[in-house]
Amino acid sequence: MKFFLAGEWQDRSRTIAVANPYSGNVVETVPVASSDDVEAALASAVEGAKVMAALQGYDRYRILRRCGELMTERTEDLAATLSAEEGKTLAESRGEVSRSVQTMELASEEAKRLGGEFLPLDGGAGTEGKLGFTMRVPCGVIAAITPFNFPLNLVCHKLGPALAAGNSVILKPASDTPLVALKLIEILLEAGLPPLAISCITGSGSTIGQAICADRRVRKISFTGSQEVGEQICKVAGLKRVTMELGSNSPLVVLPDADMDLVKRATLMCGFANAGQVCISAQRLIVHEDIHEDLIESLTPGVEAISAGDQLAEGTQMGPMVRTSDAERVHQWIHEAVDQGARLVCGGDREGAVVQPTILDNATADMRVVRDEIFGPAVAVLRAPTVDRAIHMANDTNYGLSAGVFTKDVDAAMKFAKQVHSGNVHINWGPMWRTDLMPYGGLKDSGIGREGPKYAIDEMTEMKTVVIHTQS
Ligand code: NDP
Predict the structure, then answer these.
(1) Lowest CB count within 10 Å: 22, 114, 190, 423, which one?
(2) What pLDDT sits at residue 472?
(3) 279 catalytic, yes or no?
(4) In total, how many domains does the chain have?
């Protein structure tokens, strides 16, 4: 595929091969952008920002709404592209397309709601005759940098609110999964987006991504990805607004009065969806010691029954990881934990990029499967003697994106909600739950700022204060 730069689809002689992670077959190639291309993207985005700011909110609403309609019509093509490049099953890809449509619809509505506030200036001394109000204006040029694991919906979470607010955008999708993002650009243009409002260039994040983020013409960076890269971007960003949606090793706490069937369902879903490559996967299962044995026993058959393999084959429930090198890393972490004393309850094998769904019992805080973000299909089980200890263990991490607790005791649930260091808290479900309208983001090393179109749009606009000095 070509990339879209300065109002045109363009090719380059150097390309990146995008491969199906299960078969290794090349699906497509995309161009490698040069530093001249970055400059062209920045220059055209400056012009695009003027075009976007001049559009009425209603026009921006109509473009995004039409985009959602076209995405719905092309669900099968988008889902097939997603599965081929990312490795998620077709059912998971269809789910992502449907969520992406909702994200665009929500963003389109926000284009009509960019309001301000009447300021009660007469509350200040010596303010006779003054009238004040605020208004929200676009930031200008926004850089959007996205990860591989939700290559459509996370792009929509950036482009939707950015365009709804009247900005232009330079998108740098993940090199593993750029194809569905480029298809979204085709759809946006067909829906009527002014061509200069968007550039989507492909190439290595550490070169072109970094150069875009460092440039002073960019007024806002919206990044989703790993903590390490998020920190690098913050270092080069200088005086810009940043939203950072970063990683986690989310806890799921199970107290003795939990509904065990629900816990089982939640763990299967939250631990293994998208082969564990979700920023809010349940990685640490912290179980009260009274029910620990029973839970492991009842959970194991369900995990063993997950059929893992070719994401495009009928009946596959869990696809490969995005890269064989990542599968090798996860496999190594699992076996390192076993060497350190964890018990392999099930899984632990790897073939190519497919890691069998894994449960590790007797995990401890110093193991990498507990301490770091594993981003793979493995759940580490730890025991806790009390609620307080379980909360302490849940907080024993630099991350804080999402956390879940299972209990019927309202007091225990509320104690958890208040004391757990986490941007999202789920009571009687695991950490992996999100609907796209809610505010979503992390504490501590999991990030800065919130997404969800209504909240992202706040971060993608600037507030101006206007005072009218009347003589009456
Ligand atoms: P990475 O951080 O490796 O990459 C994310 C994006 O950043 C890619 O487009 C990458 O480009 C680009 N990039 C890499 N280096 C730089 C740089 N120096 N400057 C600018 N851009 C750069 O993440 P992954 O794609 O591996 O995604 C997995 C991570 O994303 C996990 O940590 C996960 O938790 C997190 N995530 C967080 C979410 C949240 O909402 N909090 C949601 C989903 C994922 P390239 O691909 O070319 O290297």
Answers:
(1) 190
(2) 80
(3) yes
(4) 2
Rounded Cα distance between 233 and 86, Å, is 24
- In angstroms, the CA 161 to CA 103 distance is 9
* Centre of ligand 1 from the C-alpha of residue 233, in Å: 11
The CA distance from 345 to 339, in Å, is: 14
Greatest distance between any 2 Cα atoms in the chain: 81
CATH number for position 196: 3.40.605.10
Please indicate whether residue 86, judged by its CB atom, sits closer than 6 Å to ligand 1.
no
The CATH number of whichever domain residue 304 belongs to comes to 3.40.309.10
- Active-site residue (options: 86, 110, 245, 451): 245
Looking at the chain, the whole-number percentage of residues with pLDDT higher than 70 is 100
Nearest-atom number in ligand 1 for the CA of 440 is: 40
Q: Say yes or no: 299 and 381 in one domain.
A: yes
**Average pLDDT score over the chain:** 98
Is the same domain home to 294 and 393? yes
Whether residues 280 and 195 fall in one domain:
no
Going from the Cα of 284 to the center of ligand 1, the distance in angstroms, rounded, reads 22
Same domain, 238 and 279: no
Model pLDDT for residues 321-363, shown as the tens digit of each residue: 999 999 999 999 999 999 999 999 999 999 999 999 999 999 9
Convert the pLDDT of each residue in 404-455 to its tens digit.
Answer: 999 999 999 999 999 999 999 999 999 999 999 999 999 999 999 999 999 9
- pLDDT score of 376 more than 90: yes
pTM to 2 decimal places: 0.98
Q: 103-113 pLDDT, tens per residue?
A: 999 999 999 99
Q: Atom 18 (ligand 1): residue with closest C-alpha?
A: 206
Catalytic residue among 67, 139, 270, 279: 279
204 Cβ below 6 A of ligand 1: yes
**pLDDT score recorded for residue 355:** 98
For 444, residues 6+ apart whose C-beta sits below 8 A from its C-beta are: 397, 398, 399, 400, 421
Tell me if 147 CB under 6 Å of ligand 1.
yes
- Asked if residue 306 and residue 197 are part of one domain, the reply reads no
Question: Residue 440 carries which DSSP code?
Answer: B
Shared domain for 456 and 332, answered yes or no, is no
CA of 228, closest atom in ligand 1: 2
**Given CA atoms 122, 125, 131, 132 in this order, what sign does their dihedral have?**
negative
Atom of ligand 1 nearest to the CA of 447: 41
Q: Are residues 456 and 325 in the same domain?
A: no
Let me know whether 59 and 194 are in one domain. yes
For residue 17, the model assigns a pLDDT of 98
Q: What residues does 381 pair with on adjacent strands? A: 285
Instruction: Supply the range of the domain harboring residue 383.
Output: 251-436
